[in-house]
DNA sequence: TATAATTGTTATGACGCATATCAATCATGG
DNA sequence: CCATGATTGATATGCGTCATAACAATTATA
C-alpha cells in the first residue's frame, strides 16, 4: 500500500534548475533567510576550527567574556551572551572541567561565584581567537574591504536597534 | 563539601557594567558573533510570528520552495535549502500532515515524489510571507534605507562567495 | 520578620543540525 | 541481460543550542 498520494503527478523528469528565477526567490527577499545561510556556514566553519582546541562556539564566547572580565557572576555571563542562566551553567561546566576557568566563592554572597580564567584558559582563548580570525579572513576574502567595513557598520546599527527594541517593547 | 573553588575570590560586589570597554569587545570583533546575535533575534521573532499559523521557520522555507516550484523532489528541496535529505523528510511530513502539500508518486520513477502545495498551503504561505515582511519592516525600521540596501547587497555577495567556496574547497 | 528576589542547579523538551543505515528503485557498464 | 553503483526516501539517533519549569539556598526589601 502506498503511504503517500496515488500515482498522479508529473510524468516529466524532475524539474532541473531553471535558467530563470531561482527556486528560493521568495526566501531571498527575506534578509533573515540570507543571514541564516551565511551564519550557518560561519558557525559550522567555526565549530570545525574550534574542535581541535576542545572548544565550541558557545564555550569560546563564554571563555572570552570571562577571561576579559574577571570576577563576573554566572548570571552576568548569561545576560551578556543573551542566554538562559540554566544554559550558562552547562557552558561554564564545560569550561571548568578542562581547567580553563575557576568558580570562586564570593564571601559576601554565598549564592554566587566569581568566575576567572586560568592561565591555560587564557592561552587556549588566544589560540582560538587567532584561528577564528584567520578563518574569517578567508571567509570574507571575496568581498571588497570597503564594502565589508560598511556592512559591519550597518550590522552593528541593526544589532543596537534590535537591542533597544527588546528593552522598549 | 563545596563542589567548587573554596572561598577565595572577589570581596567586592559583582562588577557592574563598566562605562568603558564593553564586556564582549573581543567577541564584537568577530562579524560572525554580531551576525549570530542579530539572526537569533530575527529567528525567535519569526518563530513567534509563524506559530499562530502552525509554521516554523524551517517549514515556512520548505513550503515557499515547494509552492513556488511545483513538482520538485524531496532531495531537490534538501539541496535548495542546504539541509540533509533525512531532515527534509521530517519537514515535509510536517507540511503534509496539515494538508498544505501533497506527495505525488512519479510514474516514471517510483522512488520519487513530486511535491505540490495545496490551495490551503498556498494561502497559509501568503499569510506567513506577509506577516514576516511586516515583522522585518519593524525590525529594520531603525536603519537608513540606503544603508540597508547596501547591507543586503553585500550580504548577497558574501553568500555567493561562501557558496563558491563550498563548491571549490 | 515575612516576603520577594536572586543565584545557581537540575530536569526536560523543542528545534535544527549531523551521521549511519537500510530498502526500493533506477542508471550504468560490461 | 545482469551485476553493480547511484539515487530516493525513510528511520534511528546523537549533538548543540535554545527554551521552560521547579527547586533550594541565600540575600534584599518592606
Query: Of all protein chain pairs, which has the greatest interface, and how many residues does each chain bring to it?
Result: A-B, 87 and 87 residues
**CATH class of one domain in chain A, anyone?**
Mainly Alpha
Structural class of chain A: mainly alpha
- CATH-defined superfamily of one domain in chain A: Winged helix-like DNA-binding domain superfamily/Winged helix DNA-binding domain
Overall morphology of chain A: globular
Subunit organisation of the chains: homodimer
> How much of the sequence of chain A is in beta strands?
5-15%
Low-confidence stretches of chain A: 1-12
The helix content of chain A is: 55-70%
Number of helices of chain A: 7
The tally of beta strands of chain A, per DSSP, is 3
Mean pLDDT of chain A: 89
CATH topology of one domain in chain A: Arc Repressor Mutant, subunit A
- The strand order across the widest sheet of chain A is 2-3
* Radius of gyration of CA atoms of chain A, rounded to a whole number: 22 Å
Q: What is the helix/strand order of chain A?
A: EHHHHHEEHH
Q: Any guess at the CATH architecture of one domain in chain A? A: Orthogonal Bundle
Amino acid at each position: 500500500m502506498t503511504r503517500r498520494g496515488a500515482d498522479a503527478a508529473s510524468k516529466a523528469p524532475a524539474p532541473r534548475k531553471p535558467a530563470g528565477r531561482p527556486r528560493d526567490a521568495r526566501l531571498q527577499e527575506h534578509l533573515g533567510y540570507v543571514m541564516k545561510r551565511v551564519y550557518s556556514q560561519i558557525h559550522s566553519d567555526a565549530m570545525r576550527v574550534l574542535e581541535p582546541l576542545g572548544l565550541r562556539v558557545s564555550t569560546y564566547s563564554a571563555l572570552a567574556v570571562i577571561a576579559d572580565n574577571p570576577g563576573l557572576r554566572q548570571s552576568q555571563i548569561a545576560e551578556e551572551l543573551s542566554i538562559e542562566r540554566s544554559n550558562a551553567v552547562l557552558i561554564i561546566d564545560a569550561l571548568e572541567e578542562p581547567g580553563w576557568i575557576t568558580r570562586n566563592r564570593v564571601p559576601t554572597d554565598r549564592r554566587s561565584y566569581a568566575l576567572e580564567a586560568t592561565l591555560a584558559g587564557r592561552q587556549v582563548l588566544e589560540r582560538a581567537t587567532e584561528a577564528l580570525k584567520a578563518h574569517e579572513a578567508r571567509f570574507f576574502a571575496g568581498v571588497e574591504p570597503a564594502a565589508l567595513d560598511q556592512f559591519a557598520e550597518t550590522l552593528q546599527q541593526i544589532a543596537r536597534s534590535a537591542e533597544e527594541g527588546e528593552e522598549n517593547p
